[in-house]
């Protein structure tokens, strides 16, 4: 394995937890009507964290020769991340109260993280 593998995994993990915490706090505050939750600075920070997470994830994907057509856990994770992105965007859109969609985004995010950790699409069931 290359010398930077461990650091890249650690960076990806830290960025993922940072993204989770930011979405949880900002999303809950937005759902409760806090104006600061949807400001442009928070959006910029969240975008930056997510871009770095995607870059590190794609680098790990290439480094470890993963293939979503062969690795079913990766395909499930990518589908859950896409669903999370759609629900997260929809739940924090201006002028909408969409707590069920926000909770759905959290469930998809939890599933994506659990699949990342266990590498089992059914999570051991």
Protein described:
The chain has 125 residues and is mainly α. The protein has one domain (5-118). It contains 4 helices and no strands. Helix 1 (5-31) packs antiparallel against helix 4 (99-118) and helix 3 packs antiparallel against helix 4 (99-118). The longest helix is centred in the first third of the chain and has 27 residues, at 5-31. The radius of gyration is 15 Å and the shape is globular.
Q: Which SSEs are present, and which pair or pack?
A:
Blueprint: H1 5-31, H2 40-63, H3 72-91, H4 99-118
State the main characteristics:
125 residues, mainly alpha
Helix and strand content put the structural class at: mainly alpha
Q: Determine the strand fraction and express it as a percent band.
A: under 5%
How far do the termini sit from each other? 31 Å
Order of helices and strands: HHHH
- Count of the separate structural domains: 1
Could you say which overall geometry the principal axes of the C-alpha atoms support?
Answer: globular
Helix content: over 70%
Q: Radius of gyration over alpha carbons?
A: 15 Å
- Overall mean pLDDT stands at 87
Please summarize the sheet with the most strands. Answer: none
Number of contiguous helices: 4
Uncertain runs are none
The beta-strand count equals 0
């Amino acid at each position: 394995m290359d010398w930077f593998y461990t650091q890249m995994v650690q960076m990806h993990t830290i960025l993922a937890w940072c993204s989770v915490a930011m979405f949880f706090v900002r999303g809950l505050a937005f759902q409760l009507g806090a104006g600061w939750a949807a400001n442009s600075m928070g959006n910029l920070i969240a975008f930056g964290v997510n871009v770095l997470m995607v870059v590190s994830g794609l680098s790990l994907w290439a480094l470890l020769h993963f293939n979503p057509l062969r690795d079913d856990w990766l395909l499930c994770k990518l589908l859950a991340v896409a669903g999370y992105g759609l629900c997260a965007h929809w739940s924090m859109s201006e002028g909408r109260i969409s707590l069920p969609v926000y909770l759905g985004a959290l469930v998809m995010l939890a599933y994506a993280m659990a699949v990342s950790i266990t590498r089992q699409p059914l999570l051991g069931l």
